[in-house]
Amino acid sequence: xxxxxxxxxTPPSPRSDTPASAADTxxxxxxxxVDPGKLRILVVEDESTIRxxxxxxxxxxxxxxxxxxxxxxxxxxxxxxxxxxxxxxxxMGRMNGLELLREVKRLDxxxxxxxxxxxxxxxxxxTALREGAYDFLVKPFDDLILISALVKRAAVRLGLQRRNxxxxxxxxxxxxxxxxxxxSLKDLADRDWLTGLYNRRYLRSALDSEISRALRQQRGFAxxxxxxxxxxxxxxxxGHLAGDELLRLVARSLADAGGAEHVCxxxxxxxxxxxxxxxxHAAATTVAERVRRAMEEHRxxxxxxxxxxxxxVSLGIACFPADSPDGDSMIACADAALYHAKKNGRNxxxxxxxx
Length: 355
Fold this sequence. Notes:
By secondary structure, the chain is α/β, with parallel strands linked by helices. The protein is 48% helix and 17% strand. The termini are far apart.
């Protein structure tokens, strides 16, 4: 302890006798934050008289002080349960206030640390401020109201910190929600409203990306184009609701027959596309036949509107790069194969080589 630290302060005067200034109380700012209320404050001072008087002032101001006679004792208490505010002397035994400041900031960077120092060690207080101390008090105290005023300012600062943490948490939550909504909106924009499959716009984007990837990696892929046989006749005879349900059934059959890596899309009307990365003609034929048989086995009764009184599908296959060098011509090749399947009796799978 410095010799000037040894003089005990005068007893506290009533708060009403010496009103704090607006700057000291944080007027104009505190109403913007949640009132932190009673603060848990750790008071570290090896001079028991000073320590007890500071604690008394804090209790009179409605706070909850905990006393520690040395930095080691304070550090042990802080590790057990961190304090939002710590007031510590700078000159103590083995561990001084600066060392305690560093340890506390390492444990809890948000803790506000106030350094108490004598006139002779203002330079040390300046060092403490550079190392993260919130403020400092000079001993002996001219008036104990200075302690109250400083703690009020610290309470406002803590309230601001809590408000900022709350706002940051709310902002992060809103950002996550916005990202989720944006993802949902994008997914809705990419999906066909009736079947839930991807739409034509998304398919074109996926097809262009797949061509770029295939060229870059020197790999191929396949595309299946499907059309419901005699769909217009079925739709006219059974109504649009029945036609919509049939399209949803085709969509489910495509999704069930394909793999997770496949892109299934409604191309338009009763036409559907399956984009199959890293697939050749044989693999595409296997999937196409699986879809064709699935529709055939559903045995949707079509009355006199369909040959065989059942709904069937025809499918055309094109492969990249064997059949086509770009997206437009690839769809055209698959469409030509599909046309050949329909021309030759429908309810079948055809590739470009057979068209």
